[in-house]
Design goal:
Helix content is about 15%, strand content about 40%. By secondary structure, it is α+β, with helices and mostly antiparallel strands.
Length: about 270
């Protein structure tokens, strides 16, 4: 029987199945099978590690529902850790090709740091349905609740909502799907709720497009930090505390957003092909 070798990894509780391949196949169907929590390996996404003509390695990421994601910060950090440990790329600065372009990454003090690119604030490029110069504190009513959303793209679309009530009690399982699939977001959206603790600390939860609530989200943490800076809630590096752990985001108001955090191998195995 043919098998597919895989590596299960996690980054602050955001877990992925990595497959090193050069093949073409029905990856969306395989993602749905492998990511299933009860009938498969269980993960927040399937990451393909493939050769790249333009970078050290190429990354493709499929959500548990089979949709392909444009960007995934924690997934990219896992891929970089994998590439270093497996010898796919030499230690030092590594370039990764993704749907969102080529990103640079490196190992820093046992953490993996990725340059996530510049945040996209123009409404038509996020995208959102209405034509606006930027989307800050947009009022959106879902499930009988009025939300104030700051929207941006980190290669994939995000809607950040700062709230006063503790994020732990927020009905994310109820409202997350309604925000994700709201007509205001033509490509659906990742939805973050956040409490500002102080200028360097934010507590948050994330509803990920195509995956549901996850323990952590790298692009989500970046979106939260950018939105906080736009509101003058923060300055300098920000620790975003998520249920799965803490990610550190650096953005000075211009240029690339830098995402840092841990990543580790959980186990390796073979999937019947």
């Amino acid at each position: 029987m043919n098998t597919i070798e895989f590596t299960k990894m996690q980054a602050t509780g955001n877990d992925f199945v990595l497959v090193e391949t050069g093949d073409e196949r029905d990856w969306p169907s395989l993602a749905r099978a492998m990511c299933a929590r009860r009938f498969g390996i269980g993960s927040d996404g399937l990451i393909l590690v493939t050769p790249s003509p333009a970078a050290n390695v190429r990354m493709r990421m499929f959500n548990p529902d089979g949709s392909e994601a444009e960007a995934c910060g924690n997934g990219m950090r896992c891929l970089v850790k994998y590439a270093i440990e497996k010898g796919v790329a030499a230690p030092g600065e590594i370039t990764v090709e993704s749907m969102d372009g080529i990103r640079r990454a490196r190992s820093v003090d046992k953490l993996i740091q990725v340059d996530m690119g510049e945040p996209i604030l123009a409404a038509e490029r996020i995208p959102v349905k209405e034509t606006l110069d930027a989307v800050k504190d947009y009022p959106l009513e879902v499930g009988g609740r009025q939300l104030s959303l700051t929207c941006l793209s980190m290669g994939n679309p995000h809607a950040v909502c700062f709230i006063e009530e503790p994020v732990d009690g927020f009905p994310l399982a109820e409202l997350g799907p309604l925000v994700e699939r709201h007509p205001f977001f033509p490509n659906r959206v990742n939805f973050e709720i956040a409490n500002v603790i102080d200028t360097r600390t934010i507590r948050a939860r994330v509803w990920e497009r195509g995956a549901g609530e996850t323990l952590s989200c790298g692009t989500g943490a970046c979106a939260i930090a950018v939105a906080a800076r736009l509101h003058d809630y923060s300055s300098g590096d920000v620790d975003v505390n998520l249920p799965g752990g803490t990610l550190t985001v650096a953005w000075d108001g211009s240029g690339d957003v830098k995402l840092s955090g841990p990543a580790e191998v959980v186990f390796e195995g073979e999937w019947p092909d």
